[in-house]
Design brief:
Blueprint (H helix, E strand, L loop, with lengths): L8 E4 L4 E4 L6 E3 L4 E4 L2 E3 L2 E10 L5 E6 L3 E2 L2 E2 L10 H6 L1 E3 L3 E2 L5 E10 L2 E5 L5 E5 L8
């Protein structure tokens, strides 16, 4: 995967989903392929949704992952779309492993809501953003 940095020119392909700060249209689909200059890089966004523990032999001994309906609210991704339990399971990643005082390993589980992104100034004074994984230069 190529490294993209501030000042690079990247390609936004027709059909790419774009987030924007324009309150009339928070996300849109690119109607054509075009090039933009990267102003900044957006950080990934994730939330903790559970935990996992291993026994001393290395087998998973306990796992808890929160369901999509948490405290009466549906979990939403960065575009505001509600996630199903299956989507939560497929988008959940392990955090850094730690070792407890009794010698067993454990980690937190995180739901990735948004991957790393590139940001550029667009028309009308609004900011635009796409996930790095959607750029041909990153693959």
């Amino acid at each position: 995967m190529a490294t993209i940095k501030q000042g690079d020119t990247v390609t936004i392909l027709k059909g790419t989903r774009i987030r924007t700060t324009d309150s009339r249209c928070l996300d849109k689909i690119a109607g054509r392929t075009y090039k933009v200059k990267v102003k900044s890089l957006g950080s990934p966004l994730s939330i903790p949704v559970g935990h996992r523990r291993w026994d001393k032999e290395g087998n998973v001994s306990h796992e808890y992952i929160m369901c999509s309906r948490h405290d009466g609210y549906m979990i939403e991704d960065h575009f505001g779309e509600k996630l199903t339990d299956e989507e939560i399971m497929t988008r959940t990643v392990e955090g850094e492993r730690s070792t407890s005082v009794n010698g067993t390993d454990y980690c937190s589980l995180f739901l990735v809501l948004k991957g790393p992104s590139v940001v550029w100034p667009g028309s009308g004074g609004y900011w635009y953003e796409v996930d790095v994984k959607d750029l041909p230069e990153a693959n």
